[in-house]
Amino acid sequence: MIVLRGISKTYGRTTALDDLDLEVREGEFFCLLGPSGAGKTTTLKTVAGLEQPDSGTVELDGKDMNGVEPYDRGVAMCFESYALYPHKSAYDNLASPLRSPRHRLPAVQARERIGETAELLGISALLDRPVGQLSNGQRQRVALGRVLVRPARAFLLDEPLSHLDAKLRQQMRAELKAIGAVRRTTTLYVTHDSVEALALGDRIGVIRDGRIVQTGTREEIWYRPYDTEVARAFGRPRINLLPGAVAPDGGFRSADGEVELPIGAQASCGTQVLIGVRPRDLTLGEGPGHELTGTVYVTEVLGRSVEVTVRLGEQHVSLVAPRGDATGLRPDDPVRLSVRPENLLLFEADRPERPGRRIGP
Amino acid sequence: MTMRKRLLGWLADAALILYFVFALFPIAWMVILSLKPTNELFSTYFSFSPTLDGYRTVLGDSEGIPFVRFFVNSLVVSVGAVVLSLLVGLPAAYASARWRFKGSENLMFTLLSFRFAPELTVIIPLFVLYQKLGLFDTYVGMIWVLQLVTLPLIVWIMRSYFADLTPELEQAALLDGYTRKQAFLKVALPLVKPGVAAVSLLAFIFAWNNFVFPLILTSNEAQTVTVGALSFLGGDRPKYNLTAAAALVSVVPPLLLALTIQRYLVRGLSFGAVKS
Fold this sequence. Notes:
Chain A is an alpha+beta fold. Chain A has helices spanning 40-48, 90-99, 107-121, 136-148, 166-176, 180-184, 194-200, 218-223, 228-233, 323-326; strands at residues 2-11, 14-24, 29-33, 55-60, 63-64, 75-78, 154-158, 186-191, 203-208, 211-216, 240-246, 252-254, 260-261, 272-277, 282-284, 290-302, 305-312, 315-322, 334-339, 345-348, 358-360. Chain A is built from 10 helices and 21 strands. Chain B is built from 13 helices and no strands. Chain B: It comes from Streptomyces cyaneochromogenes.
């Protein structure tokens, strides 16, 4: 279990972490998602004891880690830069923790353990090579192996799949959670890839400007995003956000007056808002829920489905439809769209200083 | 065009050869001088009957000047000074590259200032101190005072080597279960080996060539070649051939050392210079 309370950290004038709170439960696989510079790596290093926070406390398994050296915290970390020992072979890199005073194993057992781990990560054939001769993807797997090879209170993984090629990344993503050690061990996983976070995380924390914006399961993050930034971060194509205002009847009226949706907003009339709907929640043609009419702007085939961009007044919205429904659509063809009321999200309008918060439903 | 280029090439070659002759002439002159018999010492002609008597006299202790002992003294004192500086300086360089604390830059500058302060400004007080402390004319005293020469060099050069290493390597070692000391010894130090080789050689040469400290702080027991070679100039007639032979013999250790670690040297001297 990892608990961070009120962690702040500044480097000179830049604030890396700003009163950050985070709790990773025992045995949980927790994904920390955020753009670069949001404080993800600093968070990991703070847990590992490699960075000293200016204020706040770090607890591991209920024990305050203040003043505890990194080698006594019992956590293993996979660095984004790999941080492999360049003067050693892949094998010796994997063996490093097992030869250290704190995690020492007898040589025979260590060899067995390294063999298993290498097998798991598909690097058995590379063990004799100096790490300088390995490709980035291979180095990354060796770095991951150095973490998995040893028992740990928690695994801290900093973008461990980012340098793999697409195919291998997908495969490793599928396998990572099935690995016994990962299943048993509390894992804090840092990524900037929302697909990875959704696929792997038991829970997801969204970090921005050194603060946790939202924590929750993938469903909570997907259906109840805290603000427009979080909504935009997940899902491709991105969520449609139409600007408008709350009408006197509590409905939504788009800025150009072309789109009206009765949503029963809990906001005063005239409030500037954004209404959000994900491309896969918009249906072509008639269906249950609210109906909208517009004209086709452009279509793009994505294999078995088609992304259709529809012009609604001055706005464009995109939707993903099965290929059969979209055949024969030409630009400027009139179309009807439908959306279920429960799939609509209402946000306050974005402001320069912060993205709009969700205010309904 | 090609004609002009070729001409320029010849001119450049000629200029280089000229410089080469100019630069090597003093050494050639020393070699010639060392091979001259005593009676032809003051002839400036290039024709003479060469003899190795000069070397025999210098190495054979026959003039009452124990040159071999001076040579051994130089070796002991220079190697000792470099080893001590490495033992103290490598951890210091590592620490100063990794941890900035209040006054750390001032500390480093103070250390550097030992290099550019003239030795002569401190030599008199040092002489008095050494006399009182019984360090005068001892190995310990010489090794100690040579730290002024070797330590700043090693600390400052090694510091930039350590600064070029990403701290994440040592952080990884800490998380692998090693202490900071072990991370330094097992991870950081092996990676700066070329730098250690290069800087050790430089420090050795500086220590070996030092003249002022042994001149004032030794008299006989711990005297080094730089001062010892001058003994041949004393007496009723300066024996230039012996001085030249002594000087040439004392070039051998730095030269051998440089040749043996040449492989590291080229890598080492360029490695720390460029920030990646």
